[in-house]
Write a structure and sequence with these properties.
The chain is built from 29 helices and 33 strands. It is of the alpha+beta class. Among the domains are: about 240 residues, YVTN repeat-like/Quinoprotein amine dehydrogenase (Methylamine Dehydrogenase, Chain H, 7 Propeller); about 100 residues, Serine Threonine Protein Phosphatase 5, Tetratricopeptide repeat, CATH 1.25.40. About 35% of the residues are buried. InterPro entries: Beta-prop_Vps41, Clathrin_H-chain/VPS_repeat, TPR-like_helical_dom_sf, Vps41, Vps41/Vps8, WD40/YVTN_repeat-like_dom_sf, WD40_repeat_dom_sf, Znf_RING. It comes from Rhinolophus ferrumequinum. It holds the Pfam family Beta-prop_Vps41. One of its GO terms (cellular component) is lysosomal HOPS complex.
Length: about 850
Amino acid sequence: MAEAEEQETGSLEESTDESEEEESEEEPKLKYERLSNGVTEILQKDAASCMTVHDKFLALGTHYGKVYLLDIQGNITQKFDVSPVKINQISLDESGEHMGVCSEDGKVQVFGLYSGEEFHETFDCPIKIIAVHPYFLRSSCKQFVTGGKKLLLFERSWMSRWKSSVLHEGEGHIRSVKWRGHLIAWANNMGVKIFDITSRQRITNVPRDDISLRPDMYPCSLCWKDSVTLIIGWGASVKICSVKERHASEMRDLPSRYVEIVSQFETEFYISGLAPLCDQLVVLSYVKEVSEKTEREYCARPRLDIIQPLSETCEEISSDALTVRGFQENECRDYHLEYSEGDSLFYIVSPRDVVVAKERDQDDHIDWLLEKKKYEEALMAAEISQKNIKRHKILDIGLAYINHLVEKGEYDIAARKCQKILGKNAALWEYEVYKFKEIGQLKAISPYLPRGDPVLKPLIYEMILHEFLESDYEGFATLVREWPGDLYNNSVIVQAVRDHLKKDSQNRTLLQTLAELYTYDKNYGNALEIYLTLRHKDVFQLIHKHNLFSSIKDKIVLLMDFDSEKAVDMLLDNEDKISIKKVVEELEDRPELQHVYLHKLFKRDHHKGQRYHEKQISLYAEYDRPNLLPFLRDSTHCPLEKALEICQQRNFVEETVYLLSRMGNSRSALKMIMKELHDVDKAIEFAKEQDDGELWEDLILYSIDKPPFITGLLNNIGTHVDPILLIHRIKEGMEIPNLRDSLVKILQDYNLQILLREGCKKILVADSLSLLKKMHRTQMKGVLVDEENICESCLSPILPSDAAKPFSVLVFHCRHMFHKECLPMPSLSSPAQSCSICCAKHRGPVSAILEMKK
């Protein structure tokens, strides 16, 4: 169980029991503070006997018959000498303006703290309890109850006299009473009763469970959670009772209300006090334990538990042992638990001490987390509740967290947390960097240093770069790449790198980093030289970014050797900066690279490099024959004679055939295909492309004594040449492979042609008929004629202004309109009338589609 150490303006007395001093990993729910100031002074000479709590002040009764009014801090504001003997109970109304006091010598006083009204009475027996009406301030509620051997209700009559009536007697002393709204609950030796002051009826009796306990030594504890829920604690038993309205049909002679016990359970210790906390309970328990050495019972420290009631049991939420003064001598009846509903304050009252328990706030939660070294959780809690915390600052918690991580040796996590915790505070950043330097962990913090807002002193960045330069070239290079060049003094770092290169001049990492530093310093020439030496991929990016084309005119071969594809793309993209002529000249001694450049130039634009097309013929023939034929086909500027000469020298048959055909020497080309390539299919394809009858004749003559060629011709020429011409020339007795199949194919091709022609004819006829019908439907439609239309001959409105006059109008299919009298009379040679406008435009005669007469 969790054990809390209360604090007296800081801390309570520490327990000597070692087991009780052990810290719990579970955070306590409440915090404790001893009520001091005037209370300390009172309890040095007297002992507390009872106490009641109001939102504005406290009232403390003592064994010497004094009543003290205290503020929340325990300072005395008023003192009343009520009796020479023990004050048994003090009661306040809700306004805090009226107080009732009863004492062991039978005295009862009810008086106004700020008014003159007063009630005094002395009874012949000790008065144990008193409770004033919660709304005593109202004239209609001037009531209070007292309890000794019987429970008396005092009411002020209309003549300002007090009259008393007995509510209950005969079951022993009344030892506890609580008044809420119109309900009064009290406890005597037999149990707990509830009385409805409105209906003047007692509505329940809840008997006590453990009758073996003396009621004067283990008194009943009562508290109202709300106006209809009563909580009863007696001995080790807790009952939660709910006051409910009885249905009208069930009343008969019964009270209008009844009580239902909604929860009942046993606790581990004897109950000295109860108080509600939301839907939970705060229970003050009296504890007796057995000594392991003497085997005798002794009074242990009282406990304050928070429990969650269930229907037949309860769940413990927290449990704290309280070190109150003189706990070794106290009995169960000596402890009282009072509470302030508005502030959730709980007062543990004992004869020699008053301890205040309150719910822990966010500051207390953070305190506990820091004490347990749970810094990350503390930081998170502070960030979530930064508007509510008063004693802590997020920055202080964060710095403590960083220090804790450093102490644990978790340097990388500590450095990473600096980003979030230090934020934009440059001074704190610099302070932390020096701390990391002292412990030799500059590398750990380097990835997280701010690089923009804020910017630290250049010395900080230089110090870290020097640290990496001494021990980690790769890490140094990474920082130089990632950090902007204006964070540090570039010349200082350049000199440091050059000093290291004196010892290791071929170190690629240092050379590359030096090139980057030169770039930051705008010394692009040196940077480019290093990149080219290293054959580094960023050389092209550097040239583009800083427009270094003037610096690479004499380095084109180096660039091509490094990456010809990227180099050619860059050169072609920037022809305005490095001309084609310059590039070709620079590559004159490297024809293979010259070919790569000119080939890509030709791919982009067939005409830009036309002056080099003659040169390209030799280059393609030497380095890239597969692309020679496409080049010859696409180029319109290469000299064909030169190309033919080169191809014939190198015996490039396909290219020679193409050139011969392009130069008009198709028969030589065909002859070369047949003699050099012996490829009848290619020869047939060539003859089809040329579509020349003489070529077909040459092909047939060459093939007539070669059966395989004849087969190929029979299979392919059916759609270009009449197969009969070939068949008639075949010598009798010649064996031709697959002749039957070839003849079948010729017939099939012929049938296919016939079918295609018939199909086309059917489609043509169907389309013609469809269009004729469409034209007929169109010509059958009416044409709108209104006053806006004019005669195309006389240009006057087609319709007369006087609708009564007779008229005659002709409308042609071309939509031209004429008065009938404006058209010439039809003659014998052309009896049909036609539109004079369309005839003038050579469109042919158009018959009238509509004649309108009136």
